[in-house]
Amino acid sequence: MKKLKLGYAPTRRFTFSAEDAFKYKVEIRRQIESFGMDIDIVDLEGINEEGLLYDDHINADLISKRFKQEEVDAVFFPHCNFGTEDTVARVAKELGKPVLLWGPRDEAPLANGMRLRDTQCGIFATGKVLRRFNVPFTYITNSWVNDPVFERGFTNFVAAANVVRQFKNLRILQIGPRPSSFWTMICNEGELLERFGIEIHPITLVDIQLRTKKIAAGNSSELTEAMDYIKSELDYSEVTEEDVRRIAALKVAMKTFAQETGSSAIAIQCWSSLQDALSIMPCLANAILTDEQIPVTCETDIHGAITSIMVQAAAMNERPTFFADITVRHPENENGELLFHCGNFPVSMSVEERPKLRKHFLFDDHAPGTHEGQVRGGDMTIARFDGDHGDYSIFLGRARGIEGPYTRGSYVWVEVNDWPLWEEKLVKGPYVHHSVGIHANVIPAIYEACNYIPGLTPDPVDPTEQEIQRWLRGSDLAKTSRSNILV
User: pTM of the entire structure?
Assistant: First the structure.
C-alpha cells in the first residue's frame, strides 16, 4: 500500500512576526513527525525563501502546482501567526483534497502590549472563507503544539484522509453473482459508480475455476508459499494434501485476479456452485487474503467489501478486518451477541495456536476449506456501509469480546452498550446481517471521513455523534497548563 502523502502548507500574515511564524513552522513539523505516523510530507521549501504560504498570488499557484505534481492526498494548513485566508482557500479549492485547519495557541502579549501572533483570529477568518469556497475542512481546537488534543486531532485526520483516498479509488473484484436466495446482497452498481466512483469488476465462476485448476496443476512459488503457510499455521489433519493444494491455488488465483484488475477488495459467491466446480469451500482462502490486506467478503457482498476497505484504511492498514454475520444473542448476557461466519476470519486473530482446517458443517457435500475457531476478543469497532432508495450511511459501534459457548465456524462473542438499540437500528436498516469488525477504535476517523464523501452519512450508535464530537474537540482531556507554551 502506497504511503499517504500530506501537503504541509504553514501560513502567516505580514502584519505579525515573520520570525515567530518561521519558528512555529519548524516546531509544528517536528511535532507531527514525532507522532510516528508512516506518511510522506510534502512541504513548501524552495517555493519562497521562508517555506511559508502568505498573501502572494504567484505563491498560491506554485503551491497548488507542487502539491498536484506530488499527488498529495490531503493538506494541512497550520496558521503560524495569523494566516492568509484567501490564499489558503484558493489552494484548498484547487486541490479538492481533505483539508486540516489548526493553529497553535497565542502567547500572552509582550510587556509593551504588542502581540507577535493572532493565530486564533486568523483561523476564524480562514474558516469563513473556506465556507465561501465550498471547501469542506477538518478543524482542531486551538491548542499548544504539544497538547494531546493536537496529536489526537492530527492523527485522526490523517486516518480519515486515508479512508477518503482509498474509498475514492475503490475497485472491487466480483467473483460470480450473488446467491439467488440472498436478496439482502442486492446492490446498485450504477449508483455506486455515479455517486461515489466505486467500480465493480465482475468475473465468472468459470474464470476462477479455470485459473485455480491451472495453478493447482503447476508448481509456482506462489502456490508453494500458500501451501506451506496452510501447513505451518493450521491443523489440516482432517483434509487431504490435494485439498490443501486446491485451497492454496484458489487463494493465489483470487490474488492474481485482484492484482491484474487493480482491485482493493473481493466479493465472492462462496457457495454452492463453487463447491461443484472446485470441491472446496473458499473460506480459508478468503481468510488468508484478508490477512494480507485484500479483504474478501462472502455471498458477493459488495457493500461489505466497501466497508472492509474503509475500516482497514481507518486503521492506517496496520491490521486486518474480519467479516461476520451478526447471528444470535448471548444465552446469558442481555447485551451479548455472536459474530460468526463459516470459517473466513483471519488466521492471525485465532485464539488457538493452530486452528483447524475442516470440512464445512452445513452442507451435505461437506466440502473442505473452512478455517474454524474462536478469534481473540478485546476492544473492537463494528461497521457496515449500506444503503437503499438512494440514501447511504455507515453504521458504527463499539464492542468488546466476552466469553460464550463454543460454536462451529469462525466466531467471537461480543458485548455492546445497548443490544436492543443496536438490533432495532440494524433491523430498520438500511443494514443487513453482515458486518465488518476490527480490533481498533476507528469510529472517529470514519466519522470524519464522511465529511469528505458527499452522499454518505455517518450513523454511530456507540459512541453517539455528540460524544464523538466531544472527543475530537478534546473536551475529555484535562486543561493543559501554562507551562506547555512554546519557548
Answer: 0.95
